Amino acid sequence: DLAIENIYARTRRVLARHAGLNYNSSRSEIASSIASRANIDARQLETLMKQCEETINGEPINWRQAVDLVRRLREVERKLGLRMRSRDARQATENI
């Protein structure tokens, strides 16, 4: 859960910045703005964001589901051309 929290918090910041929005903007605002700028489905992105937030807030999750969430977050970053800092990349692999 901690790995998801760390990775998601950074990814959400980057997504909000990329969308031209504030970090505290709603999931739907961020997802819609990202989708209008890139070939990404807004509903799928919003669902991914919701699943990450539910996990952070205590929703039970097994390690396979956690790895899948991280993989999907990284895929969004890759599609958008958002590169991770080397420290973030190292922490992501250490936490999983």
Instruction: Please count the beta strands (DSSP E, at least 2 residues each).
Output: 0
β-strand percent reads under 5%
Helical content stands at: over 70%
Count, helices: 5
Which regions contain 5 or more consecutive residues with pLDDT less than 50?
none
Q: SSE order, as H and E?
A: HHHHH
Average of pLDDT: 88
Shape: globular
What summary fits the major beta sheet? none
Distance between the termini: 10 Å
- The gyration radius over C-alpha positions equals 13 Å
Would you kindly provide a brief summary of this structure?
This protein has 96 residues and is mainly α.
Write a concise keyword list for the protein shown above.
96 residues, mainly alpha, 0% strand
Write structural notes for this entry.
This protein is mainly alpha-helical. It is 75% helix and 0% strand. It is built from five helices and no strands. The protein has helices spanning 2-19, 27-37, 42-56, 63-80, 86-95. α1 (2-19) crosses α2 (27-37) and α1 (2-19) packs antiparallel against α3. The protein is globular. 17% of the residues are buried. The mean pLDDT is 88.
Please give the structural blueprint.
Elements: H1 2-19, H2 27-37, H3 42-56, H4 63-80, H5 86-95
Helix pairs in contact: 1-2, 1-3, 1-4, 2-3, 3-4
